[in-house]
Design brief:
The structure is a single chain. The chain is an all-alpha fold. Helix content is 61%, strand content 0%. The protein has helices at residues 4-8, 24-41, 46-54, 68-82, 85-96, 108-113, 119-131, 146-158, 167-177, 182-190, 196-217. The radius of gyration is 17 Å and the shape is globular. The model is unreliable at 1-21 and 62-66 (pLDDT under 50).
């Protein structure tokens, strides 16, 4: 995986922190999955925004000049630096939450099958059962929500049970349940003009998952 991941995945996320075992690049991958999950599950609070901003050392404007992942990370840092948590929450609520259909749907079934709660969700639930995983009681989103899927990937990278948390399981889960639709999700976000903050989240998501896809292709 890219050396840049080690440098950029320093912002903490709200879920259980990754342990101190495993290769540094894998822990960085897990942290980025966790951060993406956090940003799509809830709007960031000020503490998280401050952590994202602090990921760039003072006086350093960018990590690796010209690197695509560095550029999108720096755009996210700038968005975190320039906008308060209240502004982030307003954009999140206006576009992802609605009594009717929101501007952007975050569930894989919609993109893969055209409707919510369709066959892709059944497939994900079956995969989670095989992995011995289940949704926490306090989680209201279905298991095909992008945040839930990224949390699964985080666990498959950084979990302690090597029979479950291994590269083969990561590749299968990513290829079947994230790869088919993440580009469409990012397109949907970027097609809404009044989502400048989440445009930066979308760009990071797209670039990072593209690197993941390329890496899994090499296995």
């Amino acid at each position: 995986m890219s050396e840049q991941l080690k440098e950029m995945a320093t912002a903490e996320h709200a879920s259980t922190e990754v342990g101190d075992v495993g290769l540094p690049e894998d822990l960085a991958r897990a942290d980025l999955y966790g951060l993406i999950a956090r940003l799509f599950h809830l709007p960031p609070d000020q503490a998280l925004l401050d952590q994202i901003v602090a990921s760039v050392p003072e006086g350093q404007d960018e990590y690796a000049e010209g690197a695509s992942l560095s550029r999108v990370w720096n755009n996210l840092v700038e968005a975190a630096k320039s906008n308060s948590a209240g502004v982030w929450r307003k954009e999140f609520d206006s576009n992802f939450i609605s009594v009717g259909r929101p501007n952007v749907i975050l569930n894989g079934s919609f993109y893969m099958a055209g409707y919510l709660n369709e066959r892709p969700l059944v497939s994900i639930r079956s995969a989670l059962m095989e992995l011995g995983l289940e949704a926490a009681e306090e989680i209201t989103e279905t298991e095909d929500h992008i945040a839930a899927l990224c949390e699964v990937m985080r666990y498959l990278i950084a979990g302690d049970d090597v029979a479950i948390s291994n590269l083969t399981k990561q590749r299968v889960f990513f290829t079947e349940h994230i790869l088919p639709w993440y580009d469409q999700l990012c397109d949907a976000i970027e097609d809404v003009p009044d989502m400048p903050l989440y445009h930066s989240v979308s760009a990071l998501t797209r670039e990072f998952l593209a690197i993941e896809a390329q890496s899994f292709d090499m296995i």
